[in-house]
Write a structure and sequence with these properties.
This protein has two domains: 174 residues, Rossmann fold, CATH 3.40.50.720; 68 residues. The chain is globular, with a radius of gyration of 19 Å. The protein contains ten helices and twelve strands. The strands form four sheets. Strands 2-1-3-4-5-10 form a six-stranded parallel sheet, with helices on both faces. The protein has a two-stranded parallel ribbon with strand order 6-9. The protein has a two-stranded parallel ribbon with strand order 7-12. With 273 residues, the protein is α/β, with parallel strands linked by helices.
């Protein structure tokens, strides 16, 4: 069977990297408004789409907080329209949704796919709403789907609204001493190339259900600051006022497909600096 692989969010960091690093799939890009029913329907029908990689989203949490209506329109309503239209087609063989670790409740142990859900941000809430709609509708329609809950990642194309690019921007500033707060949080960072490999494997296996995509290793934000500022030979101070939070992935489920991340935090930082 010929796969006509459609992709939304092709211009984003993850979408552009997935296309760039994939020689085996010829992606059919979606151009238009994901929350416009006609745009979505025309793309699905005219391009005869039967596989979908749905990556379109408003990120990161800072931007979502500034533009909540736009974020809900793209992250949830856009997904809802896409699901409704693809069900009508009765041609879709597999659907991939790019979700986030932000749907989970903070936990001081590794988070698996069955861990408690409690979004700590509006971004996480929009993604969880989309997840629930996907599961409800596609299970009923008997369309195979995979939800990839992606943990923190970074890339040179990201703006300073993201964690690591934001730290690098401060390290490059002319300030003699840079002050930080809200840094005693454990997160799980991986590279975009590792994420793309994970998505490719999930596609090849036609994986069904929910999969964490993370490094499985915890890193303290204050330690990332230390590594970056050491590299730039700059001085910083931390004024910590907040409680520590953890978002670290248990990746045992996806590792069964012989996938594991190759890049560590040092190699990730080196790519950006």
């Amino acid at each position: 069977m010929k796969f006509n692989c459609g992709i939304t969010g092709h211009a984003g960091v993850l979408g552009s990297e997935l296309i760039k690093k994939n020689n085996t799939i010829k992606f059919i890009r979606f151009y238009g408004d994901i929350a416009n029913k006609k745009h979505v329907k025309d793309w699905l029908v005219k391009r005869n789409i039967n596989i979908i990689f749905h990556l379109a989203a408003i990120v990161p949490t800072k931007i979502v907080k500034k533009e909540p209506k736009k974020a809900n329109k793209v992250n949830y309503l856009g997904t809802k329209i896409l699901i409704d239209e693809l069900i009508k087609l009765k041609k879709i063989k597999w659907f991939f949704f790019s979700s986030t670790s932000h749907v989970y409740k903070f936990s001081q142990k590794k988070i698996n796919e069955k861990s408690k859900l409690k979004p700590s941000s509006l971004y996480g809430l929009t993604k969880l709403k989309a997840e629930k709609y996907i599961q409800k509708k596609l299970k009923k329609a008997k369309i195979p789907f995979c939800i990839g809950r992606i943990f923190s990642f970074t890339h040179k194309k990201q703006t300073s609204d993201f964690v690591i690019p934001g730290i690098i921007k401060k390290a490059k500033s002319n300030k003699k001493i840079v002050y930080f707060e809200n840094t005693n949080h454990y997160r799980d960072f991986l590279s975009t190339s590792d994420i793309c490999k994970a998505i490719n494997i999930l596609f090849k296996k036609k994986a069904n259900g929910i999969y964490n995509i993370g490094s499985g290793k915890k890193i303290l934000i204050s330690h990332i600051i230390k590594l970056i500022f050491k590299k730039y030979k700059k001085i910083y101070r931390i004024n910590e006022k907040n409680k520590s939070t953890w978002l670290v992935a248990d990746i045992n489920k996806i590792k069964k497909f012989k996938w594991k991340p190759k890049n560590n935090i040092l190699s990730i930082i080196n790519e950006l600096t």
